[in-house]
Write a structure and sequence with these properties.
By secondary structure, this protein is an alpha/beta fold. The chain contains eight helices and twelve strands. The strands form two sheets. Strands 3, 4, 5, 6, 7, 8, 9, 10, 11 and 12 form a ten-stranded mixed beta sheet that branches. Strand 3, helix 2 and strand 4 (93-96) form a beta-alpha-beta unit. The chain is globular and about 50 Å long. The protein starts with 29 loop residues before the first strand and ends with a strand. Residues 1-23 have low confidence and may be disordered.
């Protein structure tokens, strides 16, 4: 039997959570709002991050193998790129943008192939609105109520995700007044938050530590320079970090070159003694990442 994911204690039937009484799997984790259906903690206390987490499949005979979580984001916009990402090894976590008429179908397909899902929430970057992160972006100029209204709309675009991560958002994630309530709401709804790690001023780790929020932070963006050689070098650095610390997290975007090289690396990770895990397996609660 596969070992449970570290943060969530999921069973190996995570995709069937809530399927009792003939209800659709997500039904017990849904709250209806004016903006649509959004995640909630079930009446029995089960969190969506637990229910939709995927099991960790240890390497036989290597219980202490270094763990690496890989996240590919920006999905749901291009059907071709998303289809290619879904074909990656199931332990790769996929992050979807909340736009596109077919995003629910693509998310369902990704979950059916065994991937954990994150919702990418557009947040205010520096230089907004010239540097535009998309419709319903969370903004430092809005009230908490206005940002919650936008957040609920974004959360309602599809179901079955284990947590949130930001799309852009360097300005927003540096503002505790604006970002703090969003992180606390994330915890309240039983989700994890993943910081993409590029913004040194992000308050996510500090607020998560004080909010009982399961949290992970990427060690590096793997395709900040999107050439085959640089992506391969970044994967090599990520592997070294995992061997040194026991765990590492890498993020990338849905560029064809990124998907191709990360998929190739992921398929051979176990042969090098590395355990590829979904993001819930490395999210921690109650301490800064």
């Amino acid at each position: 039997r596969p070992a449970p994911a570290a943060c969530c204690g999921t069973s190996d039937s995570g995709n069937d959570a809530g399927s009792t009484n003939g209800l659709p799997p997500e039904q017990k984790f849904i709250e209806m709002t004016q903006q649509g259906a959004i995640p909630k903690i079930a009446a029995d206390g089960t969190r969506p991050a637990e229910a939709f987490a995927r099991p960790v499949n240890p390497i036989p005979g290597k219980p202490d193998a270094p763990r690496i979580a890989l996240i590919v984001g920006g999905l749901g916009v291009s059907t071709r790129a998303t289809t290619e990402a879904i074909a990656m090894p199931a332990a790769v976590t996929l992050a979807f943008m909340p736009y596109g008429s077919g995003v629910e179908r693509l998310v369902a397909r990704a979950r059916g192939e065994g991937h954990e899902i994150l919702l990418q929430v557009p947040m205010e970057p520096f230089g907004y609105p010239e540097n535009d992160s998309g419709p319903k972006t969370l903004l430092t100029s809005l009230t908490q109520e206005q940002n919650f209204e936008r957040l609920y709309w974004l959360m309602s675009r599809f179901q079955g995700y284990v947590g949130l991560t930001a799309a852009m958002g360097a300005r927003f994630t540096a503002s505790e007044q604006s970002f703090g309530p969003i992180l606390r709401e994330t915890a309240k709804r039983g989700l994890i938050f993943v910081d993409e790690g590029a913004n040194a001023r992000s308050v996510a780790g500090r607020v998560a530590a004080a909010s009982n929020l399961s949290f992970a932070k990427a060690d590096m963006v793997l395709d900040s320079v999107s050439t085959p050689a640089e992506i391969d070098h970044a994967l090599g650095r990520l592997e070294m970090a995992a061997r040194e610390r026991g765990v590492a997290v890498g993020m990338a975007s849905a560029l064809p070159v990124s998907i191709e090289h990360i998929a190739e690396w992921a398929r051979t990770a176990e042969s090098r003694g590395l355990l590829l895990v979904p993001i819930t397996a490395v999210a921690t609660k109650g301490k800064q990442s």
